[in-house]
Design goal:
With 542 residues, the protein is an alpha+beta fold. It has 5 domains: 86 residues; 155 residues, no CATH class; 66 residues, no CATH class; 116 residues, SH3 type barrels; 66 residues, Roll (SH3 type barrels). The chain is flat and about 110 Å long. About 9% of the residues have low confidence.
């Protein structure tokens, strides 16, 4: 409101000034006499009857400018030092401190030593910064910068950053220790960023020496380091940090120790892509997975990446991956992805061990993990893994498990022309076999005599051989499908084993499935049937 009043006042003032200047030029006078506030007062009194409107506009505009200025100063006294605040533009982040902090008595004092010793046993990194208590929320080491922050917001309440120039990949299981002493000439730069009391302007203090630090790091897993950090700062507030901490080595965001798949960052896409690719190969056959050119396409609610997979037999594949952004988070776009073989893997073949089958010479064998028994509600932990679902009626379904929704287990399977999603209730399931060959048994489901079910491992297309298929089954399916090929394009009625009957156009027939297109309103809906699921198929005659 104040800025609008100021703009209106300036506009009216300039209009009056321009009108007075034009009148002066018309009478052969110089218009520069109105450049100063009171220089043209004699001219205005002499020709008042002709220029009274312009003079009143000039006075009214100046009055509005003065009033708006007074109101702005009364509301925000800092507007005199920062005029941009009048239009809602805040000052940039303020850098406080010198480039080289002096060595003060606290950093080398006995008090600091005793304080550090008492804080060594802190289970979480904590201390005091700028006179306020500090307890870290999370820490990360990305791009050689170690940061520990308090607060979960995009701009934390307070954050400490140390420019270590350390590659987290070089940290191994053996504990590594880094020291900084107050007298060191080339200490890593340390930055403290905090928000002002009003929560608006961030401030940063830079310390390039004079502090004391001890940092110990060791690797916990592929994406996490653990260790201990102690920092004593050379400031009058007697700031210090000490305690144990867990350090993430990527930009993933975690919620209660689980990755937040809704966080929009290339690292989230690579995490989702890695989880997906690890289910596409038998266990212990993937040597490494590297991603490149990972990008977010927010305008399309998607993303892309190129994954390079190296197998233990030397085979190297490159796959173009696409991702979709949904309400539940990022996921790999279903469907076949483009795959390029960069290097063949010699004569070795990757396969799973089937009970009773001896491995052939030269093969890399991945033994199946031992069976596990899970409650139906715990099957949600298998989300994203590939496997085969075995039903109580003997039917099977191969695909990627997509978790539980509405007390039903969903699985995504490849069908003609794309993918389809199928769901199963608890009473329909018997057991599940994952791609690794691990058998997942359901609590409360009794198996037939003979112990565990026979393993039917899922072998990806890139590593499967034609020997994994049963010729008898393929011939039976093909023979059944050929019976329906002549009806493609005709209107038929299909009754399935679940007693459902649908009438539509038979659009496609393959060895593994039939596609039925049913009109719904102004469009159509496709249904997919396995030949083994069809009880009857009859042509509709009009």
């Amino acid at each position: 409101m104040v800025s609008a009043l100021l703009i209106v006042g300036l506009t009216i003032f300039l209009m009056g000034t321009v009108m007075l200047g034009m009148d002066a030029q018309h009478r052969g006078r110089s218009s520069l006499m109105f450049a100063l506030p009171f220089a043209g007062s004699g001219y205005i009194r002499h020709f008042w009857s002709d220029v009274w409107l312009a003079a009143l506009l000039r006075v009214a505009g100046a009055t509005l400018v003065l009033i708006s200025g007074a109101v702005a100063v009364a509301r925000d006294p800092l507007v005199l030092e920062q005029p941009r605040r009048l239009f809602g533009v805040s000052a940039p982040a303020e850098l406080v401190g010198s480039k080289r902090a002096e060595i003060n008595t606290f950093a080398n004092s006995q008090e600091a030593v005793l304080l550090a010793i008492r804080s060594d046993a802190n289970p979480m990194l904590s201390g005091r910064l700028r006179g306020q208590p500090f307890l870290y929320s999370h820490a990360k080491l990305v791009g050689g910068v170690l940061s520990a922050q308090q607060g979960e917001g995009f701009i934390p309440d307070i954050e400490v950053r140390i420019l270590l120039d350390l590659d987290p990949a070089t940290v191994t299981q053996e504990r590594q220790t880094f020291y900084v002493r107050p007298a060191d000439e080339s200490a890593p730069e340390l930055q403290i960023t905090w928000r002002a009391e009003d929560g608006s302007t961030p401030h940063t203090e830079i310390i390039r020496g004079g502090y004391q630090m001890e940092l110990q790091l060791t690797r916990r897993d592929a994406h996490t380091l653990t260790g201990f950090m102690q920092v004593i700062l050379p400031d009058p507030d007697r700031s210090y940090l000490s305690g144990e901490l867990a350090v993430r080595t990527n930009n993933l965001r975690f919620i209660k120790d689980r990755v937040d798949l809704t966080y929009d960052h290339p690292d989230t896409l690579e995490y989702v892509g890695r989880q997906y690719l690890e289910t596409q190969f038998p266990e212990k056959t993937v040597s490494s997975i590297q991603f490149s050119d990972t990008r977010l396409l927010m305008s399309e609610s998607g993303g892309v990446s190129v994954a390079t997979i190296t197998l233990v037999n030397g085979r190297i594949e490159q796959r173009d991956m696409k991702f979709d952004r949904a309400d539940i988070g990022w996921a790999v776009r279903p469907g076949k992805m483009e795959t390029r073989v960069l290097a063949e893997g010699g004569n070795q073949q990757l396969r799973l061990v089937v009970p009773g089958a001896a491995p052939q010479r030269g093969q890399v064998v991945a033994e199946a993990p031992p069976p596990v028994t899970l409650e139906f509600a715990s099957l949600d932990t298998l989300n994203g893994q590939q496997g085969v679902i075995y039903q109580v009626d003997g039917r099977t379904r191969e695909g990627i498990l997509r978790g539980l929704r509405r007390n039903r287990l969903f699985i995504e399977s490849n069908v003609a022309g794309g993918t389809a999603e199928f769901s199963y209730a608890e009473q329909e399931l018997k057991y599940i076999v994952l791609a690794s060959g691990q058998q997942v048994l359901l609590a409360g489901v009794e198996l037939a005599e003979g112990g565990l079910p026979e393993v039917q491992p899922v072998v990806p297309e890139s590593t499967a051989t034609s020997e994994a298929q049963e010729p008898e089954t393929l011939s039976e399916v093909a023979e059944t499908a050929l019976e329906f090929t002549a009806m493609v394009g005709r209107e038929v009625t299909i009754t399935s084993r679940d007693t459902r009957t649908r009438t539509g156009i038979l659009t496609a027939v393959t060895e593994r499935q039939l596609t039925l297109s049913v009109r719904v309103g102004t469009g159509s809906l496709e249904y997919f049937y396995s030949p083994a699921d069809i009880v009857s198929l009859t042509e509709v005659t009009r």
